User: Fold this.
Amino acid sequence: MGVTLTEKAATHVSNYIAKRGRGVGLRLGVRTSGCSGMAYKLEFADDTTPEDLIFESYGVKVLIDPKSLAYLEGTELDFVREGLNEGFKFNNPNVKDECGCGESFNV
Assistant:
């Protein structure tokens, strides 16, 4: 199953990589943090590593380290605009609870 991007998210990532002039995709992971235990890590990747698990949606690569995949399996990453705010939204079926501010989660 892996991790997927919506078409909007893939378009946003593609445009940003083109604007940067470099990059192979989006690196996604989790780290211990926040009041609920886990937080997402998200950055643009300039290269791959041998341990990266690579998923592709709409021509955009999503790179994930093997330890994070257990928490991210089945996640869909969307890019949303709500009023003046815009950003990535994680639709993660593994989440059991989220903190009130939406910055952390637990599984």
The first helix runs from residue 7 to 20. The mean pLDDT is 88. The chain is about 20% helix and 45% strand.
